[in-house]
TrEMBL record, chain A:
The lineage of its organism: Eukaryota, Viridiplantae, Streptophyta, Embryophyta, Tracheophyta. It comes from Apostasia shenzhenica. PANTHER family: ATP SYNTHASE GAMMA CHAIN, ATP SYNTHASE SUBUNIT GAMMA, MITOCHONDRIAL. GO terms for cellular component: mitochondrial inner membrane; proton-transporting ATP synthase complex. Mitochondrial membrane ATP synthase (F(1)F(0) ATP synthase or Complex V) produces ATP from ADP in the presence of a proton gradient across the membrane which is generated by electron transport complexes of the respiratory chain. F-type ATPases consist of two structural domains, F(1) - containing the extramembraneous catalytic core, and F(0) - containing the membrane proton channel, linked together by a central stalk and a peripheral stalk. During catalysis, ATP synthesis in the catalytic domain of F(1) is coupled via a rotary mechanism of the central stalk subunits to proton translocation. CDD domains: F1-ATPase_gamma. This is ATP synthase subunit gamma.
From TrEMBL, chain B:
InterPro entries: ATP_synth_F1_dsu/esu, ATP_synth_F1_dsu/esu_N, ATPsynth_dsu/esu_N. Keywords: ATP synthesis, CF(1), Hydrogen ion transport, Hydrolase, Ion transport, Membrane, Mitochondrion, Mitochondrion inner membrane, Transit peptide, Transport. This is ATP synthase subunit delta', mitochondrial. One of its GO terms (cellular component) is mitochondrial inner membrane. Gene3D superfamilies: ATP synthase delta/epsilon subunit, C-terminal domain, F0F1 ATP synthase delta/epsilon subunit, N-terminal. It is found in: Mitochondrion inner membrane. Its main location: mitochondrion. GO terms for molecular function: hydrolase activity; proton-transporting ATP synthase activity, rotational mechanism. Residues 73-145 form the ATP synthase F1 complex delta/epsilon subunit N-terminal domain. The keyword Transit peptide applies.
Amino acid sequence: MVRNRMKSVRNIQKITKAMKMVAASKLRAVQTRTENSRGLWQPFTALLGDAPSVDVKKNVIVTVSSDKGLCGGINSTSVKISKALAKVTSGPEKETKYVILGEKGKVQMVRDSKTSIELTISELQKNPLNYTQVAVLADDILKNVEFDALRIIFNKFHSVVSFIPTVSTLLSPEAIEKESEAGGKLGDLDSYEIEGGETKSEVLQNLAEFQFSCVLFNAVLENACSELGARMSAMDSSSRNAGEMLDRLTLTYNRTRQASITTELTEIISGASALEG
Amino acid sequence: MRAAVGCGVRRSGNSWAGAAYPAFSTDVLAAPAVDQTFVEAWKKVAPNIEPPKTPLAFMKPRPPTPSSIPAKLTVNFVLPYQSEISNKEVDMVIIPATTGQMGVLPGHVATIAELKPGLLSVHEGNAVTKYFVSSGFAFIHANSYTDIAAVEAVPLDQIDPSLVQKGLADFTEKLSLAATEIEKAEAQIGVDVHSALNAALTG
């Protein structure tokens, strides 16, 4: 009976070790791409700054999560942060909606905020992530969702064992104009000349769309990296646990085996001594 | 000083936001990178959860506008899959803005320019590196930093002229045959890009 348990625990250990290796190899590939894409959003933040405390009427929270499970707590942290962010940005006359990328996030959000979910997208990672796919996705979201401020929540990949929840705030073109007139961080946007025949609002529109697709691309890549890293560490700890369990089971198995041998021996010996004397 | 901050934070029973700073001391120069109003609003709503970081915390802050025109231009040229040029000091950049080729020198007035498909050249001393960019945006800041974010860029020597000619012929044909608005727009874009490629290769 103990032998059956030992067999199944040994299988679990092999499976989790294999999953860890797979995640590690995938991580190496995605990590280089993520680090290369990190330069992409910096020009936009240098130009427009980042104002998470901006006060607008329509907030849309884009939560990036994974499709597959067994990746530790990153999806729950993303969901927790989105819900808290919704509370921070809510108030009278303000509405907050969600756009959820990834199955795991959808499952958790549907449970209590079903009405606020505007759009859900899953199976992002069926094909390797590339910019065109994300650009199409960004286009979809922009067409279907009205917003004054977009907040993208994802887990930024800091190292294999540490992932930092991050929120990137993007403003719609109208909100950018309003903020630049109000002064403050975007105040010197007006000092920038607009090159080109189009008006300032058209250029701002294109700029906002481009910014969204770039930031979303980086966010999706970073989240994928964090997911693989979290899966690696989760599988690592579970294979270690399986190993410890196996050790304990082996000890109990040996003890019971030795105990049964001892009882047999004592029976034989007592039987033999009873026959002799 | 860090120990004092840590002690203060722990005593007030706050979240460990203070302890996070030493970990990022290489990335963040000073507290201004964290938006205080946001952190405070967050703490009111969710005191037990650590507030998420914002991109500003991960970026090196840019230097302020110097009073005299600096000698060189610092260029950042980024693509979705890699940072082609990052923080390189050059003499001049010529970017393909929608109004035509625009030269950027140190001390250029702050500008936001939308790019059309065309030739981008970076001049440093006597060396010129040329790229063909598909489209994107260029920001020229007042402190002589130039950021160019493009969707796709290829060094000119990797483009095959015969394929360019073929592509141009294909798309011109498609344009004449196009029926719907969408097909016409797609064919027109193809023609534009290929003729720009052609011009970049020959010019």
